[in-house]
Design a protein that fits this description.
With 193 residues, the protein is of the alpha/beta class. Helix content is 41%, strand content 18%. A 5-stranded parallel sheet has the order 2-1-3-4-5, sandwiched between helices. The radius of gyration is 16 Å and the shape is globular. It binds flavin mononucleotide.
Length: 193
């Protein structure tokens, strides 16, 4: 099963790549998962500018980077989105990606890793709603990184053991659940053919 870990922030000095690398390494330990990291910096997109809603479009996406990203999303069976919370919502750069691509997301599992003053709880609730509209299955489990862990990672303090290790148990349940849904939906998609 192919899983993409998507780094949800592209800004300079971002934190998101750190938890993304951590969950990427945790997911890679599972032999049933083929895990790849996707950095949205490698797919710079304009603000949504397609002539037709992607849900209605019959032709390929017009923008070359959207085509490239949509190809990557299409190969995947499930997703881990690593997202900050910006003003109690999702980063515009991440929402832009959800808006640009449609059928490639459909009928696939998605789970969230978030951070912020309340561990990004608010952004995950919003992202789940977006995922449902894209015909995805957002899983019940999420990893909400507490502010102390984010602070330790960013400040370089208390690095031994790895600050993310306190989340190991949560990561295990999260990955178990994501794997279950990914497998179930992959089988269901195959039976659609
Ligand atoms: C525009 C902006 C809005 C923010 N709003 C929130 C917020 O609503 N809740 C929160 O917990 N943190 C908020 N923060 C703090 C972020 O959690 C923190 O800056 C985090 O490092 C951002 O993720 P990134 O570094 O991966 O971009 C905000 C940060 C920015 C830049």
């Amino acid at each position: 099963m192919k899983i993409l870990v998507i780094v949800g922030s592209t800004r300079q000095n971002r934190f998101s790549e750190k938890p993304a690398k951590w969950i990427f390494e945790e997911a890679k330990k599972r032999k049933e998962l083929d895990v790849e990291m996707v950095d949205l910096r490698d797919y710079p997109l304009p603000f949504f500018d397609e002539p037709i809603s992607p849900a209605m479009a019959k032709e390929p996406y017009t923008n070359k980077n959207v085509q490239k990203l949509a190809g990557k999303i299409s190969e995947a069976d499930g997703f881990i989105i690593v997202s900050p919370e910006y003003n109690h919502g999702y980063p515009a750069v991440l929402k832009n990606v959800f808006d640009y691509v449609y059928k490639e997301w459909n009928k696939k599992a998605i789970g969230f890793v978030s951070y912020g003053s309340v561990g990004g709880a608010r952004v995950v609730e919003q992202l789940r709603q977006v995922a449902i509209e894209l015909q995805m299955a957002p899983i019940r489990y999420a990893i909400h990184i507490p502010p102390q862990q984010s602070f330790d990672v960013m400040s370089g303090k208390n690095q031994e053991p790895n600050p993310f290790d306190v989340l190991k148990h949560q990561a295990d349940s999260f990955l178990d659940n994501l794997t279950w849904w990914t497998r179930a939906l992959k089988k269901a998609r195959e039976s659609d053919k």
